[in-house]
Structure formats: C-alpha cells, structure tokens
Amino acid sequence: MALPAPDPARGARRLLDWFAANARELPWRRTRDPYAILVSEVMLQQTRVDTVVPAFLRWMDRFPDIPSLAKAGQEEVLKAWEGLGYYSRALNLQRAARLILEHHGGQLPREDESLLALPGVGRYTAGAVQSLAFDLPREAIDGNVERVLCRLLDLETPAKDRRSQARFRKHIRGMMAENSPRSVSEALMELGALVCLPRNPRCNGCPFEGDCLARQRGTVLDRPVPGKRMPARAIQAVFGILTDGRRIFLQKRPPEGLMANLWEFPGGKLEEGESPRKALRRELFEELGIRSREEEKVGTLRHSYTRFIVTLHVFLVRVEDASGVPAPGKMTGRPSGWFTPLEARGLPMPAANAKIMSRWVEGLESDAEI
Ligand code: SF4
Asked: Which domain holds residue 118?
C-alpha cells in the first residue's frame, strides 16, 4: 500500500513545537539584524558551530555594522577571520558591505536580485537572510535541510538533483504557508543539526517520525542518495622557514585568486619526479633569487582542502644575510619582509601556514633565537 505523502502544514506545526522546546541558544538567534545574520550565515558555511560562535562574537565586536566593516583595512578583516578558513568569504563580506553602503543606503536589500548581486551571496545565503532576517517565505536549503527532506520525502534522486531541489522548495513553501518563514527555516536547520544526523539519526525524538517516509520504509541510512563525487586530488608541496636566527621571512600572496593577500612562507608545488629538497631549492631561486644549500627538513604535515589533500614538506633554511632575501634586484612583485615570531602571529595566514607557525615557529619569544 502506498504511504501518504507527508503533509507540510501538519509537519510544520510539530516541527515548531519541537523547536520551541529544543532550540540551542546561539548568539545570532538573539538578533534580527540582517547584517549580523548575513555574517553568521557566511561564517557557518563549511565551519562548525562551536568554531563560529567565538569568531562571530569577536567579529561583531570589531565590526558591529556595515559602515565599520566597509571602512576597515583589508589586513584587519583577514586577521579577524583567522581560524575560519576560506578567506575569500571575509573579503566578499567586506566587498558586499561597501556595495550596500554605495547602492542601498547602508541597508541590506530584501529582493532576490539585489541580494544575489552581492559578492559571496548565493541562493542559500540569500534565502537564509530573507527568511531569518526579513521573515520572507524563501527557502534556505543547506546540507542539513537537504538530508532531513530527502528522508522525510524518501527521495531516490541525489540531494543536488534539480528534481530533489524542486521537491524541497515545494515542501518548504507548504510549511511556510501558515507559519513564520523565519521559524520554519531555523527549525529545519536545527532539526538537521541535532536530530536527523547523517549516521545516527534520533528518529525516536523527531517531530516528523510519524510522517517520515524513509523511517516507515526502512531507508533512512540510504538517504540522501549519494551524488557523483570527484575524488580529492593529492598534491605534494614544500615550504621553507627562512630564518636569520631571530626573524622569519614571509611574503604576501597575490591580491587576486585563492587565499588572496594572506601571508605565507616561500615555497610551492613539487614538479613531477622532483624531490622535496630539490623543489625547495628551485622555488627559492625562482621566487627570491637565492641559492639554498643547507636546508634542514623539520617535518611533514597534511592539510585537506575541499578538492585536494596536500602533503607539505617543511624545511628550515638558515640565512646569513637577511638583506640578501629577496636577492638584490629580484622583482618579486609581492610585498615581503622579515618578522619576529610575535609580529608574524599578527598577520593573516592560510590555515596550512598557520599550522607551520604553531608547530615550528611559535612558542618562541619575539627576541628568542630560532
Ligand atoms: S524520522 Fe528520522 S529520518 Fe525521518 S526526519 Fe526524523 S530523524 Fe530524520
């Protein structure tokens, strides 16, 4: 016998009762300020809630509104983002703040077109701001919400499939028809985060238990159906901690592209058939015009990005004469300099470089010998 499709209105009532009793206290839930909600949503992309909470509080303390963010220096913005990764999100937030000041009188717009025109704002973020801040009937479908709805509706298509997305939108709009869109959005996200967990869903305490098709058909752990996934690519890279005994050498990444404007150690990817030591020597010569002979391997670390996994070979390179780095006449086109460990700690860095700092450089006082 075919099971009846879950009724959105009835499900929404149960969901909202559950949310009223179980919602977590999160700082962005205490406000309806669209800017604060935008900041929290951007921070929460690919980052865990417990990492975001202190970062959000720090950020709002430092940049409490759109004008303060728009006017801040880029270095300060990057520094405030440290620990969250994916730094382009911070730069996009600042660009968005400037555009909002320039074109929308400093107020975050509500309409699809204006919101989606802001840098870093995609369909999910726009829907989250519209529903959470403005209480407009717009869906905010993140990975948690996808999982809940794939199970509730027992979808046999992957979550990203356009047929699934159309079913999600229809069901959520049905839930919002007679209820506050803000509450429906928040509650769905919370249910995905606390109850409808990927591997151990807590169906017994779930407000959808009676309606959930996957629960009734015994397909919960088969939903969502996985989509096609590209395997993560393995990359080998090398970094050199250049030191004159007291300071280390860092250079700034280019102003465009991946991890723009962050400070890093010199180095780069290994070429085919190249050993890490040989790659370091080549990179130091190409980037800085210096010939290294006595580098010492200090360790290896692994760092994962969304689409690749990097094995980083880290060397210590002692430099007799810091004024010769970069080599005189070498035009690197990138700001660079020598910093004590204390000074370097104040610079925004990509996560892998920050790991190198904490593992092999930090712990030393600013005037200590390295
Ligand atoms: S009943 Fe279980 S599978 Fe269905 S929505 Fe609730 S927690 Fe998820």
From this structure: 8-222
Does residue 369 lie in a domain region?
no
Q: Tokens for 297, please give them.
A: 């391997």
Range 38-41 contact pairs with CB under 8 angstroms and sequence separation of 24 or more: 38/93, 38/96, 38/108, 38/121, 38/125, 38/129, 38/133, 39/93, 41/124, 41/125, 41/128, 41/129, 41/132
- Same domain assignment for residues 332 and 308: yes
CA pair distance 290, 31, nearest whole angstrom: 54
199 and 311, same domain (yes or no): no
Token output for 114: 């204006």
Same domain, 218 and 252: no
215 lines ligand 1 (CB under 6 A): yes
Q: Whose CA is nearest to atom 8 of ligand 1?
A: 196
| Span of 26-35, 96-105, 186-195, 284-293 with lowest mean pLDDT | 284-293
Q: Is 101 a pocket residue for ligand 1 (Cβ < 6 Å)?
A: no
Of the residues 192, 222, 252, the one at which a domain ends? 222
Give the separation between CA 6 and CA 170, rounded to whole angstroms: 12
Residues 216 and 297 in one domain: no
Q: Are strands 296-304 and 233-243 parallel, antiparallel or unpaired?
A: unpaired
Task: Give the residue numbers marked as catalytic.
Answer: 41
Determine whether the shortest distance from the Cβ of 15 to ligand 1 is under 6 A. Answer: no
Q: Are residues 171 and 237 in the same domain?
A: no
Rounded Cα distance between 209 and 10, Å, is 12
* Residue range 63-91, pLDDT digits in tens: 999 999 999 998 899 989 988 887 889 98
Model confidence over 220-260: pLDDT tens digits?
999 999 988 777 889 999 999 999 989 999 999 988 777 88
Q: Specify the number of domains making up the chain.
A: 2
Domain CATH for 313:
3.90.79.10
Q: Identify the DSSP state of 297.
A: E
